[in-house]
Specification:
Layout lengths: L25 E2 L4 E2 L6 H10 L13 E7 L5 H12 L6 E8 L5 H7 L6 H10 L6 E7 L4 E7 L2 H4 L7 E6 L13 H8 L2 E9 L4 H10 L1 E7 L6 E7 L17 E5 L3 H12 L3 E5 L15 E3 L9 H22 L4 E2 L3 E4 L6 H11 L7 E3 L1 H8 L7 E4 L3 E3 L1 H9 L4 E4 L6 E5 L2 E5 L5 E5 L1 E4 L4 H6 L9 E11 L10 E3 L1 E5 L5 E4 L3 E2 L10 H15 L8 E11 L5 E6 L17 E9 L5 H17 L7 H6 L4 H9 L6
Parallel strand pairs: 3-4, 3-7, 4-6, 7-8, 11-12, 11-23, 12-19, 15-25, 23-31
Antiparallel strand pairs: 1-2, 5-6, 8-10, 9-10, 13-18, 14-18, 15-17, 16-17, 20-21, 21-22, 24-27, 24-28, 24-29, 25-26, 26-27, 30-31
Helix pairs in contact: 1-2, 6-7, 8-12, 8-15, 9-15
Length: 647
């Protein structure tokens, strides 16, 4: 799915006393007000909460999901969150998915909520407000028990790609006469495809075309008393005459999960599953977690800018923003690292004017990425740089071993190190892990293989073909020296990370095909890293003491990770195979591997995606991005090339 640049909202905050717009923000673009004069919270409580039978309908449920068309000023979300907080019988988790084509800039949002009757909640929203980049942003509140999945873009573009099972719909937005595209029949039909049986809907509009569209989409429609000058509002209930076809799902009804592997991938997914309320046991063959490549003393995370804005660009942008949020929380909890920014040299970008033109064409804001000329980049870095650079203000570095340990310390996670898994078996209750003597180590309905290349070994006896992946040996060099002038991490051909205790980490080499038992650092690789350090930053190690460390990256042939539920190893002859989303899944079996050199960037978002797939929560990735990282994507490509096609 191609994305359109985000056009932030322009807000007219109204005139002085006597002006009919006093105290009511307006949109010059649509010539309409954001809420009635009685106030946005009053409307939210009457129309959207009471209209959907809330809070009573979420009582004592594990999860309740709201899907809103039109985030606007955020009052509906704040009112729902406030009702959830006040309700002693509330659901354990509240998922609020909201689409907005024209989100407010942070300064405007701050002005809107300056006198909020819910000041603590409004301030939390302001603190979490993301850069206004297209697509999905997952924001955590209440320790993750309340999640806002903010989808930025056009509702008609975004809805088909959302994987959401909604219990309630809030139809908000500017009036149908002012913004007809948002209320068109195909949008209403797309909402029906996201509804669970008995889902409800509420909106302040009673336009005849809207009611007819809802009826055609499969909703039963009624009117109810309105508020604030509106005589009536529209309520609806999902009750289609015919069953609506659904894509195959992978959710597992369980409170127990097993994870194999305690590196970055395994720790991230264990943490994500535990936050969903599962009890997770992690098995690691080594004596300690993060013992292999995840044991490097520091690693980078940052976004990317690509002219085509395809799958790679969108995935890494979304992942970088989630990594920034999650790593910032880990750093605040004591994990060494920094989210103060990162510079990536742009030797081949055509100069800073071309870089700035690209950012403008893509509509990427300055709090996500900036194009800096050589002088500005050098001033930010604290050392003379050889070229212009992309500046990612939310990028940075983190210490992987400490990050892994902190993630595995999540409540609900148990770690068993020094416990190799020799094979996996299907079991009546799900999956069993067995040791080399055939003894059962554990069993659970949900199993995630996050053990790099070893995942393919465990799957091979059951008929899954190996993925086209390769290993590369990488050596980093730690220079323990005095505090250096380098202020920010710099990447390009290699990278340099200034460390808080002085010295820095630089690297990394890339050698394809080296044996994995060749773990001894090489002086030649240290020399190579130091030469690239000098080319990047002008810094020379001189006679400083050096320490090298070796790890192995696993990457796929399309340079995308492998993350998601396993499709069945064999399909019926008539099974359609032209898209991964159509394939039936092996119940309870997931894989998370091949993160390449970008594990710290990719792991937080993809772990949350996998946890959502496993539990039925709203996905933080659109369907086409989930397809792009699906473990079955090579099977689909092979089927498309076969004489009979993909069915």
């Amino acid at each position: 799915m191609k994305t359109r640049p985000i056009e932030p909202a322009e807000v007219d905050f109204g005139g002085g006393p006597g002006d009919e717009r006093e105290g009511v923000p307006h949109s010059p673009r649509y010539g309409d007000r954001y809420h009635p004069r009685i106030g946005a919270l009053a409307q939210a409580q009457h129309v959207f909460l009471r209209g959907n039978g809330l809070p009573a309908r979420w009582a004592r449920r594990d999860r309740f999901t709201v899907l809103e068309t039109g985030f606007g000023l955020g009052h509906n979300f704040l009112a729902t969150w406030d009702a959830w907080r006040r309700d002693p019988a509330r659901c354990t988790r509240l998922a609020f998915v909201s689409i907005e084509r024209h989100p407010l800039r942070l300064d405007d949002l701050r002005r809107v909520h300056a006198g909020s009757p819910l000041p603590a909640l409004a301030e939390a929203l302001l603190q979490a407000w993301p850069p206004l980049t297209p697509n999905l942003h997952l924001l955590d509140f209440e320790g993750g028990r309340v999640q806002l999945l903010l989808a930025l873009g056009d509702v008609a573009d975004l809805l088909p790609g959302l994987r959401v099972q909604a219990d309630a719909f809030f139809l908000d937005g500017f009036a149908p006469a002012r913004n007809p595209e948002m209320w068109q029949p195909r949008v209403l039909k797309a909402l029906g495809r996201k509804a669970v049986p008995g889902a409800t809907l509420a909106t302040w509009s009673v336009a005849r075309e809207l009611r007819q569209g809802l009826l055609s989409a499969g909703f039963e429609v009624e009117r109810a008393p309105g508020i604030g000058g509106k005589r009536e509002i529209t309520l609806a209930r999902w009750a289609p005459r015919h069953a609506v076809p659904a894509l195959p799902g992978a959710a597992v009804a369980t409170t127990q999960a097993l994870v194999v592997g305690a590196g970055i991938a395994g720790a991230a997914v264990a943490q994500a599953l535990a936050r969903m309320g599962l009890a997770v046991t992690v098995f690691e063959a080594q004596a300690t977690p993060a013992a292999r490549t995840s044991g490097n003393p520091a690693g980078l995370f940052h976004g990317s800018v690509h002219g085509d804005d395809g799958h790679h660009a969108r995935l890494f942008r979304a992942a970088a923003l989630q990594a920034q949020r999650d790593h910032a929380a880990a750093i605040a909890a004591g994990v060494p690292g920094s989210t103060a920014g990162l510079l990536r040299l742009a030797h081949d970008a055509g100069g800073v004017a071309a870089m700035q033109a690209l950012l403008q064409r893509l509509g990427l804001p300055g709090d996500y990425a900036q194009a800096l000329d050589r002088a500005a980049a050098s001033a930010l870095a604290g050392v003379p740089l050889p070229a212009a650079a992309w500046h990612y203000p939310g990028g940075g570095w983190v210490a992987p071993p400490a990050w892994v340990v902190q993630a595995l310390a999540q409540e609900g996670v148990a770690l068993r190190c020094g416990t190799p898994v020799a094979r996996i078996d299907r079991h009546a209750g799900g999956w069993q892990l067995r040791d080399h003597e055939g003894r059962v180590l554990a069993q659970a309905p949900l199993l995630v293989l996050a053990n790099a290349a070893d995942a393919a070994r465990l799957l091979a006896p059951w008929g899954w073909a190996p993925w086209p992946v390769s290993h590369s040996r990488g050596q980093v060099t730690y220079w323990a020296g005095d505090r250096l002038p380098l202020r920010l991490p710099v990447a390009g051909e290699g990278y340099a990370i200034p460390l808080p205790e002085g010295g820095l980490l630089c690297g990394a080499t890339r050698d394809e095909g080296d044996p994995e038992d060749d773990a001894a650092p090489r002086d030649s690789d240290d020399a190579h890293n130091l030469a690239r350090l000098q080319a990047l930053t002008g810094i020379s190690a001189g006679r400083a003491p050096l320490q090298g460390r070796v790890g192995w990256r696993l990457q796929s042939d399309d340079r995308l990770p492998i993350a998601g539920p396993l499709a069945l190893p064999r399909f019926a002859a008539r099974q359609r195979r032209d898209q991964p989303r159509l394939l039936p899944r092996e119940p309870g079996l997931f894989v998370f591997t091949a993160l390449g050199a970008r594990g710290l960037t990719l792991a937080p978002l993809l772990a949350r995606q996998l946890a959502a797939q496993a539990t039925g929560a709203p996905w933080p990735l659109e369907q086409d991005l989930a397809d792009a990282v699906d473990p079955a994507r090579w099977a689909v490509r092979a089927a498309r090339r076969s004489p009979g096609g993909a069915g």
